[in-house]
Amino acid sequence: xxxxxxxxxxxxxESVRSFLRTASPLPKVRQGYDRRVYARLNGELGLSGLIVPxxxxxxxxxxxxxxxxxxxTGAALLPGPFLATTFAAIALTKVPDxxxxxxxxxxxxxxxxxxxxxxGDGATVRGTLAQVLSGMEADVLVAPARTxxxxxxxxxxxxxxxxxxxxxxxxxxxxxxxxVVMDGAPCRVxxxxxxxxxxxxxxxALAAEQLGVMRxxxxxxxxxxxxRVAFGRYIGSYQGVKHKLADMHCKLEQAExxxxxxAWAADESPAELPGxxxxxxxxxxxxxxxxxxxxxxxxxxxxxxxxxxxxxxxxRAKADEVLMGPPRIHRARLAELLEL
Amino acid sequence: xxxxxxxxxxxxxESVRSFLRTASPLPKVRQGYDRRVYARLNGELGLSGLIVPxxxxxxxxxxxxxxxxxxxTGAALLPGPFLATTFAAIALTKVPDxxxxxxxxxxxxxxxxxxxxxxGDGATVRGTLAQVLSGMEADVLVAPARTxxxxxxxxxxxxxxxxxxxxxxxxxxxxxxxxVVMDGAPCRVxxxxxxxxxxxxxxxALAAEQLGVMRxxxxxxxxxxxxRVAFGRYIGSYQGVKHKLADMHCKLEQAExxxxxxAWAADESPAELPGxxxxxxxxxxxxxxxxxxxxxxxxxxxxxxxxxxxxxxxxRAKADEVLMGPPRIHRARLAELLEL
Amino acid sequence: xxxxxxRRAARAWLQENVPADEPPEGDAITRAKHFMAKLYDxxxxxxxxxxxxxxxxxxxxxxxxFAAEARDFTLPTYVFSIGLxxxxxxxxxxxxxxxxxxxLRPLLRGEEIxxxxxxxxxxxxxxxxxxxxxVRDGDQWVVNGQKVWTSVAxxxxxxxxxxxxxxxxxxxxxxxxxxxxxxHPGVTVRPLKDMSGRANFNEIFFDNVTIPxxxxxxxxxxxxxxxxxxxxxxxxxxxxxxxxxxxxxxPASFEALRKAVDTSDPLVRDxxxxxHIRSRALALFNQRLAQETEAGLFPGARGSAAKLLLAELTxxxxxxxxxxxxxxxxxxxHPLAQAISLAPGMALGGGTNEIMRNIVGDRVLGxxxxxxxxxxxxxxDLKVGTQA
Amino acid sequence: xxxxxxRRAARAWLQENVPADEPPEGDAITRAKHFMAKLYDxxxxxxxxxxxxxxxxxxxxxxxxFAAEARDFTLPTYVFSIGLxxxxxxxxxxxxxxxxxxxLRPLLRGEEIxxxxxxxxxxxxxxxxxxxxxVRDGDQWVVNGQKVWTSVAxxxxxxxxxxxxxxxxxxxxxxxxxxxxxxHPGVTVRPLKDMSGRANFNEIFFDNVTIPxxxxxxxxxxxxxxxxxxxxxxxxxxxxxxxxxxxxxxPASFEALRKAVDTSDPLVRDxxxxxHIRSRALALFNQRLAQETEAGLFPGARGSAAKLLLAELTxxxxxxxxxxxxxxxxxxxHPLAQAISLAPGMALGGGTNEIMRNIVGDRVLGxxxxxxxxxxxxxxDLKVGTQA
Lengths: 340, 340, 388, 388
Known about the structure:
The complex is a heterotetramer, with two copies of chain A and two copies of chain C.
Chain A: H1 7-23, H2 26-29, H3 35-43, H4 63-75, H5 82-92, H6 98-106, E1 111-113, E2 118-120, E3 124-133, E4 140-147, E5 150-157, E6 163-168, E7 177-192, H7 198-225, E8 229-230, E9 233-234, H8 239-268, H9 273-298, H10 310-321, H11 328-337
Parallel strand pairs in A: 1-4, 2-4
Antiparallel strand pairs in A: 2-3, 3-7, 4-5, 5-7, 6-7, 8-9
Chain C: H1 3-17, H2 25-42, H3 60-70, H4 81-94, H5 97-108, E1 114-117, E2 133-137, E3 140-147, E4 158-164, E5 175-181, E6 187-192, E7 201-212, E8 216-217, H6 223-241, H7 254-260, H8 266-294, H9 302-325, H10 335-342, H11 344-348, H12 353-364
Helix pairs in contact in C: 1-3, 4-5, 4-6, 6-9, 8-9, 9-10, 9-12
């Protein structure tokens, strides 16, 4: 089991971090998805192709590397379809499709993934997906479609005929969703639905983003506690603040350990993956929201203002926590896997 | 709804409190049950007859008054069968028996109550009760017995023939239990088992004791925080301690409010009693243990020693929390009563 | 007239005079002023205030009776709450007769709206470290600085302003209280959006705003003791309101949630039970405090425990509700998205949770105070606000 | 010999030489001493200690390899742990050559047992406020006072003693470190029962106990810096042990509980899931720290986070286990009754949770320190211990 970062992974982290620091600082995040940032992110850093197999032009990396990248995009609250495209890429590595994988690796195609089934006939699909992540920004939807011959994975051009998209604002100002209605929309069948592994990997990927969100939130409030004065003392010198920050640090340490473990399991130990993935969502999702919440509260009144960034982390944390469904599903899954 | 104490109740509290302060201080508590203390408690203060109807020589008070007394016996960690006798008296007010009620009111008889059924034939009983509260100290066991004619309440002389008692040490050094095996033990039938009200009243009575335990634990650690110095300052001046004590105070305020409400409901609003009783056990039992636990921890190393009193509160709190069964039963009951 | 009769009369008046629905914002001020005038004419404005200054000269008993009846109505008097609850009582307690004469009756009659100008970006929990300066110039004062978290400032005619008048003495000793004309040139009111996107507060900028010395409240450099009076009144009016109602329209309340979620799942049921337990625990505590108050026992700092618990419950409710409802709860149109966005507000307005715990620890439990480093240093040498 | 070979040899030796079961107490000391002698002869005692003082002069790599293998065995060396982990390294780092010569080899060979004498009833978290006095008398020192929380003192031959030698200087500046003969007349060892009824600690009373000056460790009044060395070694040996094993025999562990409770109840299942989540979270954190250490990254104060989490987990486990099992869990014979009685110990030994949070806040997060009132006052004028 490998719970620490390799030198290469540390370099990856550093390069993504320093890129985002200049290309997508927090004031810019509020302006939403910027295609130019994505172009550079994918071009200069090759992030979109990180987990795409080498034969399709990607780097063929595993989830341990992906987690490092997602932690940084999470910490930066990167707007737009990066997580959605990553979700789709994770699915596509299980039903490889040259056109899509190559397009994603080259940064030409943004995509999103539905966990919900739609109905299909092999050539077209129909159905309504109530909340599709980054559904307005993604070019392609990858989704399971029930056909006469069983459930297959299909790709649907979201800007194509037979598709109606409605933008949905959400709590998370940095990443929207869309309602997608398909009525005879042309689709391409990619292959039969893979039996396992996609959902677990999505859990791990999301947990990596959440780890980044919580780390950035903790960093922000620790920095503030070192410069904000009340009653003639830095607020970080009060045990009321210090002890809460120490508890938040403890959560972060555990969350990071779990994310590393789950990513390692995804790459190296398939039998452990389901339990590790459920553990990751059950622990990290909650810890991320708690840390983001307390980071906001410890800012005092300024943390409640629209102008301050604290609420961006708080809202991303809450949106992420419920992204895969009510969080209790992960606990229920754990109970099942533990044969309780 | 009456959530505050009347003048008479405040006087009752003061007299029980000052009596116990001298007659049963904490160093004495470790020595266990003292019949002489009980004789005075019942004689001078009339506590054993507090809720016994006046026609049987008692004071005919309600649970609101009883709660005041139990809070003080709880705060003093009074050893012996006071709570057990109170439980039996609560049951007997529903199936009145002159001999027993008069004996309890006069302080001649100590008793205990079983929630579990035994088997009976109208004249004798048989069965094993695994954990009977104060089973070694009580003279009489009141229990439901299943007979051919239905379930009846019976009284069994615990020192009588056909009864084998085995003392059980428990976590709570101040109050033991016993295994009671009955094999053809003579019994007296008191009447049919009452349909409702006993169990709920036991919940309220226990919550009152727990309120006293938590109040005394909080008082003890607040007092210590005012005299114990670390790094040149009283420990109570550190926010790490102060804020925890403030949170404990918040729990105490809520617990007291719930106990007053539940006791009022028992006396005045039967329809509200089941929900109030379950609420009391669900909230107060947990809050009491948490406060007793944190009071012990905040004492530092000395709180971990046998010689210090902190563990007496911690152990009583834990024993009380599980006295009526695993605490989740109260939450399950609430779910049912709320028609969830 | 005995109390029961007073109460019946109040109820009858309220039934007849309280508008059924709150009108939309803009017009609301006119209607609120109109309603206050009616309230005043009916004798329900300033019930315990002296007759000399426009009040009714009655007792706490009548005040409580009216408040109890009014709880069933939504009185459109929100914009007057700062004036009636905080700044008015301060002028009453600490002002000159001339100030009482000038300011109190127009407030009670709904002719003038007030705001309170204490907090600053660098002085939140620690109000006494504020930096807005008032410099004497003959028989007037010149004010420069910035205030924040000011409710109703965009409607206000007058503001109760705490400003620094001496930087060479410790921070509590160089403050003075003033009444400032909010229509004076140099006063800029800028709406401040909260994290839910609503603008319930304002920032106020003072640029060479002058105040006549006759509008000074209390002695020069004695402003902190005047502010303590105001904050005491604030705490009273907050703790009186804590836990009263509020759950009815809360999408994260037990009653709302039980309809919104799948209660066949035992884990969902148990979360609802937890919500019920915590809500009931606090509601009963608030009722006990209210009963004590009615019996003449003033709850004092214990009200801060109730405020702390309400802040925690508010966050817990919205948090658990979004967990139970899942993905759709974060859609912009969902009431829970608004609830989770507003939830931190209760913990951040009227004193943070940390301040509440200090108050409970110091004043309820009598714990020793934190050593203070800021009580003796001249203000100009003190670290304040945000700095490395 | 390469590392893998070293490891294989160590394992083989352990398999052959570690007694299968721990023998009963009284005899245990003799057997422990016997085992230490064998360990020494085999070259596994003091692996990284210099050869000159009886060690093996090898590297951390061999030490870690042996420790990794030893984890699968129960070595009967408990009574030597203070000597090997704390007092021995202190003598090595700060003692004279004569002291190293006298004390280290007998320790490594299991001939002499050590204890550590820092804490006092009035000086727990704040060790430097201790009151035990050592007064110079020619070329010896006379000690009077009381120590507490001393493990293995009733078996100890030597104690590392921190005592006050000057009360006219601030508290950290008037302490001196000594090696005291535990068999000296005037040393009284009294077992101290913990709240579970077990006597794992002792109180030590010193009544005119003399110590030759040659048994002073470090300079006069420089004892605090020596103590910091000892405490650093203590922290290292605690954090190395944190989270290693321990769950196997824990009646409140997930594996033990799943067999003991009714898992058909969804609420019970969810509590077990919570227990699993928290246990795994900490176990993985400990494994990550261990991997970092093996990679040469010293975790430092982050070990205090692990210790804090372990203290909280230990209490949570026993608490939730007794809740799940219900009434029978509090019967004296039930393993959970013992578990809930011992559970607070992890939070109270080796630094309270509050101290751990301070360490994490100060040293991991780099937060500003609490203002200190005790660093400049002469000790005799300082408030210490328990007083009004």
